Amino acid sequence: MNIKILTPEYVVFEGEVNSVLLPGKNGEFHIMKNHAAIVSSLIGGKVKLFTSSVGESYAKNFTKENEKDSVFSYPIKSGVVEFNHDKGIILCE
């Protein structure tokens, strides 16, 4: 599935991921391939991408959670996510 993470200043990430874990108002939620369409607000926390790599141009924006798993995190203050047809856009600050 394709995920794009945007801030008002720049594109944080754009590419293929296996899944994404997001900090929602009612707790974290996981979006995986073939997930139902969703629009949700996000609170402060970490957006976690489950993917083999984030690419050189985006690597500076992410922290690798651990060496064993391919989980990359990006801290946000708030935002919104829209996901439909295996494509997601995360607008955040």
Helices and strands in order, then pairings?
Elements: E1 2-6, E2 11-16, E3 19-24, E4 27-32, E5 38-42, E6 45-50, H1 56-59, E7 63-64, E8 71-76, E9 79-84, E10 87-92
Parallel strand pairs: 1-10
Antiparallel strand pairs: 1-2, 3-4, 3-6, 5-9, 6-8, 7-8, 9-10
Family: Belongs to the ATPase epsilon chain family.
Function: Produces ATP from ADP in the presence of a proton gradient across the membrane.
Subcellular location: Endomembrane system
Q: Key terms for this structure?
A:
93 residues; mainly beta; ATP Synthase, domain 1; five-stranded mixed beta sheet; five-stranded antiparallel beta sheet; 1 helix; 4% helix; membrane; proton-transporting ATP synthase activity, rotational mechanism; ATP_synth_F1_dsu/esu_N
The count of DSSP E runs of length 2 or more, i.e. the number of strands, is: 10
Query: In the CATH hierarchy, what is the class?
Result: Mainly Beta
Query: What number of domains?
Result: 1
- The topology string of helices and strands comes to EEEEEEHEEEE
Output the structural class: mainly beta
CATH architect. name: Sandwich
How much β-strand is present in the residues? over 45%
Strand order of the largest sheet: 2-1-10-9-5
CATH topology: ATP Synthase, domain 1
Identify the overall geometry. globular
Round the mean pLDDT to the nearest integer and report it. Answer: 95
In helices, the fraction of residues equals under 10%
Query: Major beta sheet, specifics?
Result: 5 strands, mixed
Low-confidence stretches: none
Using the CA coordinates, give the radius of gyration.
12 Å
What's the N-to-C terminus distance? 23 Å
CATH superfamily membership: F0F1 ATP synthase delta/epsilon subunit, N-terminal
